[in-house]
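Structure ticket #2291
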Amino acid sequence: MRKFKLHLTDESYSQRPKTREYSRINRCVMNMKREIDLEVFAEEAGENGKWFIPALYDGGKENFLQQEVFVLNTSDSIHLIKAQTALGKTTVYCAMAQRWRGAKPFMIAVPTIKLQNEVHGRLAACGVDAEMTPSIEGFLEGFGDPGLQAEVSTLYEKGFGYRVKRRIKEYIKENEDMLAPEQVYAYETYQKCFPKFDGSCCIVTTHAMLLALQEKELRKYEIIVDEDILMTIFKNTDTFSFQDMEAILHERTHLQVLKDRIREILGMEDGSMGNTDLSELDPGSLDQLYEEDLPVVSSVPDFMASSSFYVDVEHEQVHYFRAKKIPNVKLTVVSASLNLKLYKDYCGGRSIIFEEIPPARYKGNLVQYTEYTMSRRCIGSLGFDKVKESVQNVTGRIWQLLGRPTMYPLSTV
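Resolution: structure written out below.
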């Protein structure tokens, strides 16, 4: 606590505007002589202000890292917290979930299933009651049926991912008499794993699931988004080749609206952009397309669901983008790569609050290994011991290697 109070008086804060909210927070911290009680502290700092959570990391050495996380308890704003890589963002929100006594539990959304499993494990280690939204990938692995896996892969490849859950139910029903006990258990477990979204406990989910949930469900939680969710949304891009588009024109499909729009786009000049404008197609159109089983279909369902496109005549293809609306609920996004202008442009007139955490000041010497270029994937495939040996051979010394905790055993980082 003493170190944290000194941190508040540090020069990095002296340049900040002395707002009423910040002065109140400062005063609350300075008056505290014991471990912070988040609920009391939030009340003392002001219901309409910011509540301030410090996290002090002390590995038994003199140097320590401090990070603050701001969450605004007011409107349905998007709160962007930009903090450098390896500052301890995940550790902070796990500690917040452990101590939190607010009216609503946390929902934590992460970009990948791997990170979802990791965060859920860390919350469990902290004694936090948390549920995970299940993944189809995890279910298929546990179910262990190559035939079903092949069918699911085909649906995704053809752009009919929305039919996967339906097909799994049909497959189970068709083969229920031939399922092994462990397969029955895997399916029953998968069905039971879906949270009720009733606000009874913390939820750990993915960006994709967060974007698919209804706002009435999301409003039951304090939502923290780990990593830039816009980067997840911007990955919803793909291409539709002129050759495949022309092939659709010659197919015997009843979707005349689709054919007419493809003709218009093929007649556009290089660099033309526009809205896809296939909203006239009703939800049953995709099912109709699926039943027709056209030979050239891989890009069609996604293109039909896209919102905008760009014509690339040079490479004879159309780039299209499927926009996803960021839910109109309060979100706190924590990432090292956040762009305020991008969020303002993408989210229209929504209130967006941006806070950049001052970078940590590292002590000691950092030696960069420049003999080879090694990505995290490369290091992971080579193995930590081999990398450590290689660095030692080049430098002649044993160094403490820095990297993400998921790359090396905790004892070596």
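Closing remark: The longest strand covers residues 50-57.
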